[in-house]
Structure formats: C-alpha cells, structure tokens
Amino acid sequence: MIAIDTNVLVRFLTRDDEAQFRKVVALFAKNDIFIPSTVILETEWVLRYSYGFSPETILDAFTKTFGLPNVKIKNPDAVAQAIELARRGLDFADALHLSASHECKQFATFDADCIKKAKGLTTCKVKKP
Predict the structure, then answer these.
(1) 38 lies in the same domain as 4
(2) pLDDT at 45
(3) Whole-structure pTM over 0.85, yes or no?
C-alpha cells in the first residue's frame, strides 16, 4: 500500500499537470492507495480556495475517489458522515472534526457559524466552551 500526499491527490482530481496526472493514474492503477485524513482535509481546502471548486464538486470527487476499490482511508465511516454533513451545509473541516468526535458528548468551538449549522445534524452538542 502506498500513502499519498495532497499534491498527488490534487493532480488526480484536477488534471492540471498532464505529465504528473499520468504518473498518478499509473500509481493508482498498480497499487493500493492510502489517503490520510490530513490529506483529505488539506485537499478540500486547496480545491476550494486555490482552484475555486464548489463544495458539491469537491464532495462528489471525494465520494468517487474514496469509493475506488483500491483506495483506503482511515475512519471511512467518519469521512462518509463528514461528506454528508458538508452536503447539509457544514464547512467540510467542521464536518470532519465533528464526525471524528462522534463518541464525545460535546464539541467546543467559538465558531458561531459551526454552532448554528450543526444544530440537529449530530448527537454531539456543538456549543461554546
């Protein structure tokens, strides 16, 4: 299994450098691929802020990529829940943080937007400390 960095996943999803894209496709074709949660989080940010991709486009790309039979991610249930929470209006980073904290009774944040948008979406209470 080969773990990949954000720049490799971004090449795969954007095809913005043809030579690197071909190398990444070959890597994916010949290997089991592990994508760390930190790479997922960073990739979402890069695609949204640097490439201007819409949240829906990013979430669709993640869903397709993480569904490939040779792609493995840590905590796939938490990542799937984060994608669903993001589709329902939460910022992806907040959604990933919340889904990874599902066993906790409270998620403390000063982010008023996160508190407002998370209401009713999770059993973990999201509120100020």
Answers:
(1) yes
(2) 97
(3) yes
